[in-house]
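Notebook entry, structure prediction.
Reason for the run: the old model in the group folder had no record of what sequence produced it. Starting over properly, with the input documented here first.
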Amino acid sequence: MDEILIVGSGLAGYSLSREIRAIDAEIPLHLITTDRGDFYSKPMLSNGLQKNKTAETLINASATEMAEKNGLTIDTECRVSKIVSTEKKLISKKGEHEYGSLVLAVGAHPILPVMRGDAADQRITINSLYDYALFRQRLPAPPAHIAIIGPGLIGCEFANDLLSAGYQVTLIGPDPHPISTLLPEVTGKALQRAMQDAGADWRLLQTAAIMEETDKGYRLTLTDATTLSCDLVLSAVGLRPETTLAAASGLDVARGVVTNRLLQSSDKSIFALGDCAEVAGLNLPFVMPIMHAARALAKTLTGQPTEVVYPAMPVIIKTPLHPIVIAAPDPKAEGIWQTEQTNEGTRCLYHGVGDDLLGFVISGRFVEEKQALSQRLPPLLPASI
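New structure, fully documented this time:
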């Protein structure tokens, strides 16, 4: 029986192994990961501080426990160097591995903008358990001043966590308002005010150009020539799908590893899942798309070809200072935003032709409408006819 080889031990890789085992208890499963293979909830990285979570207490199960639970062979701290697709073989630090099907579940890596200064390499990014451990190790006690470069979704979640734990926070970025790629201005401004009321300082419409070390911490020089002093700098500019291995192997790559709705890449024996995948033109780095895709891929890999179907999948942004739920409309959908704002929140609905609801952004007290509004949305990726 041909072995299924999975590269990556994040939510995508482990969810796939669990789904496969629910169908087939015998098919050989082998997982390779560059880290220790501990299973944890990655979304918890951006609100673990308030919950007093350390890197170790975020772990739900060790690699050994996951191997036993899901009937896996796991190679930990093992880097993959090459895929020889013509021979259906993968080369790693621990040797050569033959596969029947290969699944790339390698996630995404932080975008790190160019910055000058003698301390530019001391910026922290948080995209793994290792990163979070370093963050907690270097984080001074409150009320230390933390500068966050990037006022997007992740930057705002970390800022909310730090503010709630008693830290001073400054958010820096070229955006006109927080999370500007996802939120209408009215909601972004509402979030900005709520966080400002909690003590956040905003430096928008500019970026950090220089980072220098001082006797007391760091000095950032912004593109408008102003400076600010801080104790730690967190870079949260965004993530880019990890496609290096796929591209070197000759697979089609765009924003992510290009796949069809079977999660199949341009090589019929190689599949991509999770943050690294661009499925039918969609790269969705969130939990629910991974769960739906893993379930469909497990069926495909065990002999029942199954296309992934994405229902409407609203995203909850973890900013309790001003709660937000997003169900972004298809970028190609024609429509118009209808916005409502009160002292208690915002309600932005995207209506298409015929007044059909195609997306929404709700905040504050309006998040109570999440379920009712979600039921009115069309699927993001409907079943093929």
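Summary: The chain has a mean pLDDT of 96.
The old model has been moved to the deprecated folder.
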